[in-house]
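step=encode ok
step=design start
structure_in=
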């Protein structure tokens, strides 16, 4: 694991904390280097599909930020199915012109 100015035990604890927060909240914003580490080391722990999007620069020190989200594949499929059913119902309710 590449060090980022702190000790190895700190880095491991930080990644573990980020994984824990991500599994609870499903979305988090952190610095880009930590987001990259999270994508590498946190994938097996989250049991879902993770995505990372760069989200600009932090105002105070100019550090590049990234937002990491986790998407549960089974939940995403269910939501898509619900949207399709709702669209079909809405089309039936609309009167023809």
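sequence_out=
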């Amino acid at each position: 694991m590449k060090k980022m100015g702190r000790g190895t035990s700190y880095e491991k604890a930080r990644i573990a904390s980020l994984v824990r927060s991500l599994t609870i909240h499903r979305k988090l914003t952190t610095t880009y280097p930590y987001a990259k580490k999270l994508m590498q080391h946190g994938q097996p722990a989250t049991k879902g599909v993770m995505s990372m999007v760069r989200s600009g620069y932090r105002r105070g020190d100019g550090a590049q930020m990234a937002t990491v989200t986790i998407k549960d594949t089974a939940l995403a499929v269910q939501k898509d199915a619900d949207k399709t059913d709702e669209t079909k119902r809405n089309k039936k309710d609309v009167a023809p012109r």
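step=design ok
step=annotate ok -> Residues 58 and 64 are 6 Å apart (CA to CA).
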